[in-house]
Each structure stands twice: as C-alpha cells, then as structure tokens.
Amino acid sequence: MSSALGPKLRAKARDADLCGVVIAFDLDNTLLDPSGLAYRNTVTEFLDHPGLGLSAEEAFTEYEALRGKGEALERLGLRNANHDRGNADALAALCLTCDVGSELLRALDVSGQHAASYHLFLNRLAELDLSTRRGNLEERLEAELAVRRFCAADGRSADFRGQVARLSCHPRIAEWASRYRTIEQRQSLENVRPVVHDLVDRGAGVVIITEGKVATQEEKIHRIGLAEIFDGRVLVSEAAATFPGVSEFRTHLEKRLQECAQSDDTIPDRELFGLWQTHCVLETWNRKTPAFFARCLHAICRNPLGCERELANLTVVSEEDWRQQPLRFVMVGDRYESDVLPLLQLLGPGAGLRIRITEGKYGGFHRDDDLLRDQGPDLTFNTWASLARHLTDDLTADSISPIESAPDVFFGLARPRHFRLLDGRYQWHWTTAFDGRSS
Known about the structure:
about 50% helix, Rossmann fold, flat, six-stranded parallel β-sheet
C-alpha cells in the first residue's frame, strides 16, 4: 500500500485488512534475537574469561558444536542446548570436554585426561543418538537399543552426568546463564512488539510455532514481553506429542526397551515393534516436520484463539468443513529445513505464504534437496527491519494463497492402530497385543 496516503486515510484503509489471516512466527532467531548477536556476544564474553584457557572464537565454535549434541545431552538427563541457548548444563559440558585445565576443572579435580575421555564419549553418544532418527523403523529400533546398551556398558555415562550437574552450579557458570537472560530481555527486540501489535490491530491472528519443551519456550516468550498477546496460541512440538494416555504409553515402552536392551535377543518381538512404530509417530510430531505442521494447521482452523489447547488433542477438521473456510496461513522463520521445507512438502508451493529471515546464524544455509532445489521461501528478508516493513506496509490477505484442503496429520507415515479416526477426532488407544508387525 502506498505510503503517500495520509496517516488517517492509511489507517482507515488498513482496518481489518488481514482479517482471516493467521501469521505464525518461529521463536529463536526470528522473534527472539534475530541477528544472534546478543547470544554470541554474551557467550563470547564468558568464554573469553582467562580462567577457561581458550580463545573466545575457539571456545564459541566448540560451544556451538556441543549445542548440536543437544539430544545426546538430553539422553543423559541434561538440558537440551538446542532449545535453550543460555544453558548452564551445556556450558559445564563444554568445560568438561575441552582439554583446558581451567580453574573450574581444577575445582572439580577433573584432569585433562578425563576431558579427552569425556569428549570421545559424548561424540560417540551423539553419533549413536543421531542414528535413531535415520533409516526405516527396524533400523531406528536397532539403533535405539544400541544407544541404551552403550550407555549401560560405559561407566562414563553416569560420571559425566554427575560432573555436569555439579559444574553447572558453579557461581561463574550460574552468573553467566543469568546474565545471558538479562541481556536478552533488555534487548527485547524493540521492533518486534510494535509489529505484532500492528498485525493484531489489522485483524490477523498471530501464533508461535516452535520446537522444544513447552516450559522452556513459554519462559522465553515471557522474557521478551509477548506472553499476553500470544496467550493460548503457542504451539510447541512437545505438546503435539503429549496428550492423555501418552505418559503411560511411554512408561510401558521404556520398560520394554530396557528389557530388550538387557537381553541377548537381538530381534525385538511383535509387541515392541508395534509400540516403537507409535513412538516414531509421536517423535515426528515432536519436531518441525510436515506432520507436526499439519497438526498445527488443524488446531488453528478449529480454534484460532485457542489453538494451543486444540493441539493437545487429536481433533482434525473434515475435508468438507475445511473447504467451506480455507485457511490463509503465513509462516515466518529463519531455517529452511524446519520453517520452509516441511510446509512445501505438506502443502506444495501454491498454498500459504512462507517467509524466511536470514539475519542470524542460518543465513548462509543453502538447500541441497534435488527435488526442491527451485522451491524456496516465497519471500526472503536479510534483516528484521526489512521484514517488519513488509509485514507493516505490504502484506495483504489477497497476497496469501488459501490452503484449500485439509492436510494429513500422518503425512508420510503409516498410521499405527493406536490411532482411530472417529467423528473428526483421532482416538488414542494403545494396547500390548499385536497380531503382526505393522509397516
């Protein structure tokens, strides 16, 4: 819309011009510290401390590599640094896996030899953990059992976990974690809140779609002062895989996996394989995948103002109801592989609007999927300021292609018998009896 309009006429013309549009934002590197400078500067400031014995640049590179092993840390009962950048557990793990002989390590009486050993242990655990998310169901189940056998057989598992727990409470590390959050809050993205409020004033529904733990993501949203405006509309992957009955299911699955890992039988039985198939569906919803985005879209379509509650159940919209009021949906995020590609796979290039911001650490990432090499985001912006100008001045409902058909919440997956569709809602039933392997 032309900025030549006077402010009153422009405001009147824009009243409710985004009515019926839902705009979803990623959190880290999008609403929260899009450039990543607050994070990098604060981490570097800590790592440049003489007591660590590392150059700041070297240590930051090591810390980023360790954050990439977040799932391995989580297996040991530690916090996943992928979803919580100001993470004392990860910083403690860095001190334990770098051969630096710092004052912190001396305080714990940890030698360089131990550090080298911990480094090898964590790398091996991360390698095994990654294999549980690759291959077919049988290969992933075999990899899961291999991880458990490795942790049970390697005495460094409990020792490393205990050392991290002790070191993460060290005053210097606790001070750094607190300082990071304070700087992040003070920085608070001065441009973000006015833009989000403007979108709401123009009739748009705004939601957050992010990956990780619900408690961690909610804490971040409170910290940057956006909790009220996104109240009831924070869609976190953990919530998509958590609903009544899942806790009991996971307890039973954990028991069966432990029994199988401790036995000499290398071939899982039919029941365990069936449970594992359902687990893989839940894990697919627990990450930014096409199936997770489908769950989010159904939740939004059912109740735009209370979609967070809808995500916690398995309600879906019928094809007939969806066609009567197709959704105009915009996704704004920084990562191609988690904010753009899953929606392309789910909806194709002709539905919705995908916007990518490349100001932060993933700006240099180039897609290498041969099938989708020419299918990138619809719009790309290098800075939050340029993105904000587009959202404020140029975005209209007519520029967003509606999603015409209801997306499949089991996209690319074989639906296990634990999920039964009844009256527009998947009923969750799991049993311990299977008459054969599911495919």
